[in-house]
Fold:
Amino acid sequence: QVQLVESGGGLVQPGGSLRLSCLASGSIVSIGDMGWYRQAPGKERDLVATITRGGDTNYADSVKDRFTISRDNAKNTVYLQMNSLKPEDTAVYYCNADRALVELGLGSRRYENDCWGQGTQVTVSS
Structure:
């Protein structure tokens, strides 16, 4: 079973920066596409950014040119660098892995799909 744990959230003033990290743990052989999503109070969860295993990225229009997603496959970690933060960025940020290949033992493996972390709070306020 794959576990994702986000960290790096907190309180920051408008115009400030923050870097989120997501560490995947378990008997992981490889992880496919990963992404960051966010959910503000009373709203649905929205996509922020995605990154393929090869490093191709995609961003929501609202964060393009301000946020940067990256990953370190050797460490099973994905990052989100957030610059020029706005109050509208306030939300709980969630990490996602669309597919992970997991070692079960004795040479047996299986795929796990749609893995999610517990979320980390980001608050942008003066």
Remarks:
- The longest strand covers residues 91-105.
